[in-house]
Amino acid sequence: MGDGEVFVKRRTGAPAGFFEWEAAGLRWLAEPAGGPTVVEVRAVTPGSITLTRLDPVRPDRSAAERFGRHLAALHAAGADAFGAPPPEWRDPTGWIGRQSLPLGRWDRWGAFYATARLLPYVRAAVDNGNLGRDGATVVERVCDRLAAGEFDDDRPPARIHGDLWGGNLLYAGSGRPGDMVQAVLIDPAAHGGHGQTDLAMLELFGTPHLEVLAGAYAQAAGLPSDWASRTGLHQLHPLLVHAVSHGPSYAQEAVAVARRYA
User: Fold this and answer.
1) How far from chain centre, in Å, is Cα 204?
2) Which of 6, 48, 119, 197 has its CA 20 to 30 A from that of 227?
3) Which pLDDT score is estimated for 124?
4) Which keywords has UniProt assigned to this entry (predicted)?
5) Hey, what's the torsion of the CAs at 70, 233, 190, 238, to 10 degrees?
């Protein structure tokens, strides 16, 4: 890491609270003992966030394995409810990338996931023409099964990053020979969810040494032997988010995945 150097992120026209949301998520993710390293927030203003600068290095298998275990510890730290934001965040929405992220409190994961993570983005993708009505119907059938509790398990709400694609998992170090490489979380959409959602997003968009990372996570988190069969279900949210912002190809992929669970 950068020995006191900082990195300032700015966004022209950012909505009110945009950087405060990021800061709240980073601080919340950094709390649990045994969790992963999280980039340090130095300062936040309505138009910017100042973070400790990271020195990216080549990831190695041991760093990925450690991160898998640390991610499981982060998730085990829990959240107040499914859909609940970091405690310091009071607004009913946050952000995932440039899109709004509904927040709230749900007792069951399936109802939360259908109501707040799938249906809003189905509607938005239909409205902007990126998702056709027939495809939307397929995803809505999955939402019906989710809302009925068919995919619920006994796991309590996990403290998840919420936007854990490979670009938001950086490997950093001092650059000095022999120093340990650390996996570092940046840019979250943190909330209470299902831990497998973070893992599924890493698989969807790719990250180095994924097999090692996922194996370490599954063992540490005590995932059931059939956990991988539900990976696609957890990938529907990021696919639909991208369907809204990045076009019909992501909508088509979301529908193809949804057919497996409809």
Assistant:
1) 12
2) 119
3) 98
4) Kinase, Transferase
5) 120
